[in-house]
């Protein structure tokens, strides 16, 4: 049921009117597009007004002129209370929505408008995770590296930056391994004879074939670190 | 191996590849390399449209990785399907038939799905997080994949 309303001052009357229309039925849900730009930029609005609505859990935030507090003269069921506390984090909400929708373009567009240097480490980490879910992989890397830069002692951000960093050369002068090419040539030559089978090859020699990989691994053991290529012949 | 006009090296190693559909039902031919990821040898399709190294579940199982070393569980869209899994950083070696083999750290997606749900999908070598820092060229006449590190 939670709903937050925000509106430019001139629209306040409209909002109240809609509120009345919907009060007995479904609550009015404001879309994020209804938020004014100031919310998108800062996520906070000072000197707006928080409305506590009796009997309903919704919090309604509307800008009003004057300094009235206490029961609303216009709407008896509303109490006015001045507030400058942060609203919900609209920027992160928008990021989350774009991520959930897997809308990579919208995600990047929202992320690019956020001042990450003013954000806590947890927000940046959350944004990296949302980026990955959205399929915005480059943005995930950029945010992770930015976060690692801003928070050098934050272990998780450092981990994200390390794992998402551009590939790093470990060695470019290792000896050749002609056996790998021999395995490829074996497959080109003999694939037709082993269709549907799993095969284990080493240096162009067939070690064993089996119907399943599990069967193959039972015979040769885990091939990790042995130079043995295992593959299904399709 | 391969040189620029001014004799600077372009590629330091060459490996042979297969050029075929990944399965008998496959309509499109793929460039398939034999690679070694964390010392496990398997075949992977070069896919410059994909991110990361993506390891088919059957081989992921053999890698015996600990998800504690990975990033938080996420999802990756592969051929239109979202697969859950973990992102690791692993050493990947391109073993040269001629020249010098090349070892580098690549970002790697390890799907956490049943092998049946994976279907006939192969493993992939994607551009982002994997091939993006490698010079490469192919010679279709020889089925040769040339590679070299960026300086």
Summarize the structure.
With 234 residues, chain A is of the alpha+beta class. Chain A has helices at 12-23, 37-42, 90-100, 104-112, 121-134, 137-150, 155-164, 178-190, 213-220; strands at 4-5, 48-53, 59-62, 70-71, 78-83, 168-174, 198-202, 205-210, 229-232. The longest helix of chain A is centred in the middle third of the chain and has 14 residues, at 121-134.
Give structural notes.
- The complex is a heterodimer of chains A (234) and B (151).
- Chain A is α+β, with helices and mostly antiparallel strands and 234 residues long.
- Helices cover 41% and strands 18% of the residues of chain A.
- Chain A has helices spanning 12-23, 37-42, 90-100, 104-112, 121-134, 137-150, 155-164, 178-190, 213-220, and strands at 4-5, 48-53, 59-62, 70-71, 78-83, 168-174, 198-202, 205-210, 229-232.
- In chain A, the strands form 2 sheets. In chain A, strands 1-3-2-5-4 form a 5-stranded mixed beta sheet, with no helix packed on it.
- Chain B is mainly beta.
- In chain B, the strands form 3 sheets. A 6-stranded mixed beta barrel of chain B has the order 5-6-12-7-11-9.
- Chain B is globular and about 50 Å long.
- Chain B starts with a strand and ends with a strand.
- The chains are: A alpha+beta (234), B mainly beta (151).
- Chains A and B meet through helix 5, helix 6, helix 7, strand 6 and helix 8 of A and strand 3, strand 6, helix 1, strand 8 and strand 9 of B.
- Strand 6 of chain A pairs antiparallel with strand 11 (101-111) of chain B.
């Amino acid at each position: 049921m939670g709903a937050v309303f925000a509106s430019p001052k001139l629209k306040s009357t409209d909002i109240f009117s809609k509120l009345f229309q919907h009060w007995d039925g479904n609550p009015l849900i404001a879309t994020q597009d209804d938020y004014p730009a100031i919310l998108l930029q800062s996520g906070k609005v000072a000197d707006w007004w928080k409305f506590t609505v009796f009997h309903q859990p919704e919090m309604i935030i509307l800008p009003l002129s004057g300094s009235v507090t206490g029961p609303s003269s216009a709407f008896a069921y509303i109490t006015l209370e001045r507030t400058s506390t942060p609203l919900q984090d609209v920027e992160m909400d928008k990021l989350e929505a774009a991520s959930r929708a897997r809308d990579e373009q919208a995600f990047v567009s929202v992320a690019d408008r956020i001042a990450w240097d003013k954000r806590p480490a947890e927000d940046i980490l959350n944004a990296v995770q949302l980026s990955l879910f959205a399929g915005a992989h480059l943005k995930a890397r950029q945010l992770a590296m930015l976060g690692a830069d801003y928070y050098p002692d934050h272990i998780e951000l450092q981990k994200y930056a390390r794992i998402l960093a551009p590939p790093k050369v470990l060695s470019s002068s290792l000896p050749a391994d002609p056996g790998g090419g021999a395995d490829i040539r074996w497959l080109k030559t003999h694939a037709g004879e082993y269709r549907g089978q799993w095969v284990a090859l080493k240096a162009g020699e067939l070690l064993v074939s089996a119907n399943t990989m599990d069967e193959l691994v039972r015979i040769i053991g885990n091939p990790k670190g042995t130079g043995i290529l295992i593959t299904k012949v399709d | 191996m391969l040189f620029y006009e001014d004799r600077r090296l372009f590629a330091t190693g060459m490996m042979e590849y297969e050029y075929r559909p990944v399965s008998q039902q496959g309509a499109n031919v793929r460039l398939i390399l034999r690679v070694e990821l964390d010392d496990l040898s398997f075949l992977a399709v070069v896919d410059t449209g994909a991110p990361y190294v993506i390891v088919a579940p059957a081989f992921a199982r053999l890698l015996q990785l600990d998800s504690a070393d990975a990033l938080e569980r996420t999802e990756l869209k592969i051929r239109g399907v979202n697969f859950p899994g973990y992102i690791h950083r692993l050493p990947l070696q391109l073993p040269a038939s001629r020249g010098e083999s090349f070892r580098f750290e690549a970002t790697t997606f390890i799907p956490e799905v049943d092998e049946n749900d994976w279907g006939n999908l192969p493993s992939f070598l994607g551009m982002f997080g994997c091939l993006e820092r490698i010079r490469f060229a192919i010679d279709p006449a020889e089925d040769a994949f040339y590679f070299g590190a960026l300086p």
